[in-house]
Amino acid sequence: MKFISKIVFAIAVLLPMFANAQDTTDVAQNTEQPVFQKRQKVDGIVATIGDYLILDSDIDKAYLEIRSQGASIDGITRCQILGRLMEDKLYAHQAIQDSIVVTDGQVREKMGKQIDYMVEQLGTMKDVVAHFKKDSEEDFRNDMFEIMKMQMLTEQETQKIIEEVQITPEEVRTFFNKIPKEELPTFGAEMEVAQIVVLPKVTDAEKQKVINKLKEIKKEVQDGASFFGKAVLYTDDKASSPTGGFYKINRKTQFVKEFKEVAFSLAEGEISDPFETEFGFHIIMVEKIRGQEVELRHILMAPKVSDEALRDAKEKIALIKKRIEQGEISFADAARTMSDEKETRANGGVLLNPRTQDTRFELTKMDPALYRDLSGLKDKEISNPILETEQNGKKKYKLLTVMNRYDEHTADYAKDYTKIKALALKEKQFAAVGKWFDTKIKDTYVKINGEYRDCTFTNNWLKK
Q1: Is 319 helix (H, G, I), strand (E, B) or coil?
Q2: Which pLDDT tens digit goes with each residue over 334-378?
Q3: Rg (CA), the chain
Q4: Which whole-number Å values give the CA distances from 389 to 120, 316, 377, in the listed order?
Q5: 366, 370, 394: which is closest to 383 by C-alpha?
Q6: Which residue from 392, 361, 435, 434 is spatially nearest to 281, judged by alpha carbons?
Q7: Residues of the chain scoring pLDDT < 70
Q8: Of the candidates 265, 336, 329, 333, which has an alpha carbon nearest to the alpha carbon of residue 296?
Q9: What string of DSSP letters covers 277-340?
């Protein structure tokens, strides 16, 4: 697959993180593929990109990070890692030139989610600190903060480069036709899945209880209490809880319509009345308005669902299943008329793959929970009612069915147009990024020191 391998856009990120001085020395001595095995160990500046410096120890830290994740460093040279680190620094340098702002609040929010995941995987915060060979949790958090900020600047600058890249049907056809037949990609076994969702009904009394609590919180904040503290204590939005409910949004940010309408109607310092979205009830306080962007804090509270409401929802979805199995109504028509999930209702319940925006799910890349729920189902067979609890704590019952199955096969232009289009777009984006690098390297101060000047880089860092 030489042809396809040339257009793979996403390269695994090599994080320059988490090693103390003794550890980096050990890594340098034990790496299987160093370029300069006998060099004297001096932690000097090996490269400068704009305002950013890269130290020799940053390369050692990257090796340690790769190994700490259980990956092999065979074949990975110091030159390759330096090249990747320089790419990251150029992205971040240019992001600042382009006035891209990443706030400390945004970094802490994303870092909080990442740390929660690490703790879930490794056991405790102490285990995480030990895994990354840090002396203390404070050291770990400080290092991770800087790394996450660099990543976020890089991500936003990359998105800025590729967001205007579009692909036409003719370009997709040209891309496909130039692939040699023996190098056409093979797509794994896939399936199309549909679901019907029934949400337990929330009583008016429970809704009013939440509304009253939010009004109480609003008054306390107006009387001098901290909105940040109230959000940490009471919000059901786990993603923003560590940052006191903080978000920075513009009109293109992917938030529900009702939330954005309220956010952009408020003045600085103003707190909204409680309002409802599909997630529950909110109050918003706007902290700053910066042109088209709003920095705000919010508190989300979801009304509680009673055991009786859960039983009613289960009985309702069981009845829907019975009617489908008895032939009274098709699964698709039942989804259109009886499902409470508006995202899939109009499409007869068919799920959209969030990764590809296609209706097909490749089995080897399917979400494990979804695969578990589907395993054992025959074509057109309907699952028993499944109780699912979402991340925000909301509960729902669902029925699943497999609409179509597709065996592993060589790419076909007509059948696999969506996937082929995605590959063609990635190739075009890759070319746009390459052109961007050529231009920005010429316009940016770049200096590579010592023996690293003998490296062969993918990009023209030496400006030859």
Answers
A1: helix
A2: 999 999 998 899 999 999 988 888 898 988 888 888 989 998 898
A3: 26
A4: 18, 18, 22
A5: 370
A6: 392
A7: 1-43, 68-69, 391-392
A8: 265
A9: ETTEEEEEEEEEEETTEEEEEEEEEPPPPPHHHHHHHHHHHHHHHHHHHTTSS-HHHHHHHH-S
